[in-house]
């Protein structure tokens, strides 16, 4: 790159190209040095983030040990999941009175405050993970619970109440809870200090247990 | 380049300031005050390192403390001074209290479900906020009351060497909070068992749980309570507060007789409605 020899063309219009000589293609492959995202079409910008979110969802559904879900965090997935679950879980006022279930805002508070508290606990114990990475992982690992909420809702709509359906719903939310805890343990266990792993993992267990109880006790 | 600019542009070696930037979070050897020890550099309370000193504990130690809180004679006589006093942690109290809040709320809903006898889950989600208020108030107020009574009534002007086991000793507020937090651990399995709808069993659980953890509390605090003028009041106060907490939760959320009368009421109203319909129909 020879900046000294670049000439500015002062002819009729002063519009010039902002690209560095050599073209944009050369730089796109380098990590983090994408100078040309101003020029790309919006579709490409949005699709890049969508692809990142989609990869993370896939990684949660099929957790593997060596995984770089932690490297680049984003909070889109957790937001979508939280909104979806809060919309379904909120109490319905069909009888003109509150049926005792959580409000939309209460589910939001539980999910986000819970993720923040678990993250702070992990950092206080000496964990080596950054704040937002941890919140990102905990949020994405809600995916199995979102799926089990969907299954429960479908069961409720299609069939009438009975012990068998109740047991099925319990099974679905139990499976979601186990999967979510397993996934988050796999992602987070290496960043915890060695003698305190159980201390850092127990709050995650409690967090997903509470959310799966919310899923299981939703009966409308 | 000339030598003058070469000097300016060359790397300079500075003294190693690594020591002055270090923050020591080792537990101090004597009873900790609320601010950091004079031997370690002062860490601002806006930095996370300040709070890390309250979480300086391993899994094995936490398990040990929980077990000690359930078996009355298991802890050594100077447990307060040598163990809790030296390294009080906030991990145990915080997470045991949180677990207890949610166990009580979930079991309370389960008990209500079992008492109503239909598949509609009448869950009262706001039990969580009521339960949490009670428990947090208990863990914060009781230690404060005990600590202030001890501070007010124990005379520390003994001349003996403070490192002797028999020297007068007042635990710090943090150690008492830690002790109270761990003493709630026995109520977690007890609150799950409270959903079994047998009244006699529920009372046995209340008495057993309150007795076990109450006696641990009194045993551990005894070296300091002995020195106080108000020792009898303290012992009675601690034991009764503990018992009232357990009995209160059981009676409010899980107790059987109140629900059986409710059940009878609903059956009676149902029959009245049916007979009214039969008459009009």
UniProtKB/TrEMBL annotation, chain A:
Residues 67-214 form the Yip1 domain. The chain crosses the membrane at residues 75-92, 104-125, 137-159, 165-187, 199-216. Keywords: Membrane, Transmembrane, Transmembrane helix. It is found in: Golgi apparatus membrane; Membrane. Signal peptide: none annotated. InterPro entries: Yip1/4-like, Yip1_dom. Its main location: Golgi. It holds the Pfam family Yip1. One of its GO terms (cellular component) is trans-Golgi network. GO terms for biological process: endoplasmic reticulum to Golgi vesicle-mediated transport. Belongs to the YIP1 family. This is Protein YIPF. The lineage of its organism: Eukaryota, Metazoa, Ecdysozoa, Arthropoda, Hexapoda.
UniProtKB/TrEMBL annotation, chain B:
The chain crosses the membrane at residues 94-115, 127-149, 169-188, 200-218, 230-254. Pfam families: Yip1. GO terms for molecular function: small GTPase binding. Residues 74-249 form the Yip1 domain. Its main location: Golgi. It is a multi-pass membrane protein. GO terms for cellular component: Golgi membrane. Keywords: Membrane, Transmembrane, Transmembrane helix. One of its GO terms (biological process) is vesicle-mediated transport. It is found in: Golgi apparatus membrane; Membrane. PANTHER family: PROTEIN YIPF. Belongs to the YIP1 family. This is Protein YIPF. It comes from Polypedilum vanderplanki (Sleeping chironomid midge). The lineage of its organism: Eukaryota, Metazoa, Ecdysozoa, Arthropoda, Hexapoda.
């Amino acid at each position: 790159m020879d900046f000294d020899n670049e000439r500015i063309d002062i002819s009729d219009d002063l519009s010039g190209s902002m690209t560095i000589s050599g073209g944009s293609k050369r730089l796109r492959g380098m990590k983090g040095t994408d100078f040309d995202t101003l020029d790309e079409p919006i579709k490409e910008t949005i699709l890049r983030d969508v692809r990142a979110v989609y990869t993370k969802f896939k990684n949660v559904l099929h957790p593997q040990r060596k995984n770089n879900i932690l490297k680049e965090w984003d909070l889109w997935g957790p937001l979508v999941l939280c909104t979806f679950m809060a919309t379904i879980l909120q109490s319905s006022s069909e009888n003109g009175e509150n049926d005792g279930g959580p409000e939309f805002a209460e589910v939001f508070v539980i999910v986000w405050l819970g993720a923040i508290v678990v993250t702070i606990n992990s950092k206080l114990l000496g964990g080596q993970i950054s704040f937002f990475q941890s919140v990102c992982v905990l949020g994405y690992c809600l995916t199995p619970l979102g799926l089990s909420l969907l299954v429960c809702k479908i069961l409720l709509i299609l069939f009438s109440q009975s012990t068998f359906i109740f047991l099925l719903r319990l099974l679905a939310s139990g499976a979601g809870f186990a999967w979510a805890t397993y996934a988050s343990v796999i992602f987070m266990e290496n960043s915890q200090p060695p003698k305190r792993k159980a201390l850092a993992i127990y709050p995650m267990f409690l967090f997903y247990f509470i959310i799966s109880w919310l899923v299981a006790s939703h009966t409308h | 380049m000339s030598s003058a600019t070469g000097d300016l542009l060359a790397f300079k070696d500075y003294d190693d300031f690594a020591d002055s930037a270090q923050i020591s979070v080792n537990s101090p050897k004597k009873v900790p005050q609320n601010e950091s020890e004079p031997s370690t550099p002062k860490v601002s309370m806006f930095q996370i390192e300040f709070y890390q000193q309250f979480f300086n504990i391993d899994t094995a130690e936490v398990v040990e403390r929980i077990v000690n809180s359930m078996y009355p004679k298991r802890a050594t006589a100077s447990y307060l001074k040598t163990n809790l006093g030296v390294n009080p942690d906030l991990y145990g109290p915080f997470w045991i209290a949180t677990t207890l809040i949610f166990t009580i709320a979930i079991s309370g809903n389960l008990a209500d479900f079992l008492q109503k006898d239909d598949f509609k889950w009448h869950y009262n989600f706001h039990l969580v906020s009521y339960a949490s208020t009670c428990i947090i108030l208990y863990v914060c107020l009781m230690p404060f009351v005990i600590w202030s009574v001890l501070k007010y009534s124990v005379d520390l002007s003994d001349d003996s060497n403070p490192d002797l086991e028999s020297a007068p000793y007042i635990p710090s507020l943090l150690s008492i909070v830690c002790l109270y937090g761990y003493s709630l651990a026995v109520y977690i399995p007890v609150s799950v068992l409270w959903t079994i709808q047998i009244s006699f069993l529920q009372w046995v659980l209340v008495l057993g749980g309150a007795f076990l953890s109450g006696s641990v509390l009194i045993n551990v605090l005894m070296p300091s309570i002995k020195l106080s003028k108000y020792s009898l009041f303290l012992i009675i106060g601690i034991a009764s507060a503990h018992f009232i907490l357990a009995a209160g939760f059981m009676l409010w959320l899980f107790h059987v007789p109140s629900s059986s009368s409710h059940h009878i009421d609903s059956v009676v109203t149902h029959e009245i409605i049916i007979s009214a319909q039969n008459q009009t129909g």
